[in-house]
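User: Quick sanity check before I run a bigger batch. Here is a single chain. Can you write out its predicted 3D structure?
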Amino acid sequence: TAQIDSYFNHFAPLNSYFSDSELADFYPVAVKYLRDPKTGNLAAIPRNMDARVQYYRSDIYQEKGLKPAETWEELVDVGLKLTGDGHYGLVVPGQGDPAQRTFSDLLWQAGGDWVDQANKPAFNSEAGIKALTFYRDLIQKHKIVPPDAVGYQWNENSTEFSSGTVYATFDWPGAVATLSNPETSRVVGKWSTAPYVRDKAAISCAISHAMALNGQSGRKEPAVAFIKYTVSTDAQRLQFDQFTNFPSSQSLAKEVIAAAKGPQATWLQQLETTIANGKEWPKLAGFSKVCTLMFSAIEQALSDQASPADSLNQAATEAEDIMRRAGAYD
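Assistant: Done. Predicted structure follows.
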């Protein structure tokens, strides 16, 4: 949903298909983000929540007498103690949408935000530069992340951990299904989860995977029936049981958490905390293009082609022009 502003004019409103009581059961952060700020129309409905927690090799940590990091400083310290002999203490993605989301988390954790009260770019603030510098230094200075991570997206990020090469990462709920399956993981039974790390705060993206109705559809009723089934508690329960997708239904999430035991209960509680503290991106005209702009700006800094300050300052200048031309300030 990072680029939802691009689709408000192309999706048919779902308001009339869901009652107030039905909508009240979905996590508010997800529903709020899927509403068009100009019309109040509901552009999409959340199917499952996508929030991240820390995954770490509990067997290796125990062997070395380490605890999962709680702060940025501890993340570096623990990573340095784990890196060596072909292994790395951490992996983060460094390209495209995954890099933009990772920068978002660090930006918010450092106390910054994407835009200021006037909706002008603010990601090049002191907090933004601190966040991108820390992100770059994980790879280039501290070297606790594989050097190729600058080219990693989600799949490469997850594979490095599931293969056993890397000892910690931040990933979405579906990672549990992958890491628990011997066909897709070499670390089955050797990992645990922990809360997201923090700087000034422990904030991460709390987004949803959502279903929408094409505004040009000539068969809206059957399409809506499919959407309503897909976001029903029955379908969400199946998604959780088979793929560990965290429900967007608050009532179902409470049931799942209440029934869980041991490490699963801990993991689910950590996810719910991430969602409760989570943030979304601005819903401003042109911001989807700003996201694309940020892909290259972040990659330039991570690969040491430009300083974090130069990358962000240049991107902020271009971002304001993009949003102005898109009508964000009309």
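Residues 53-204+284-326 form a domain with the D-Maltodextrin-Binding Protein; domain 2 fold (CATH 3.40.190.10).

User: Great, the batch can go ahead then.
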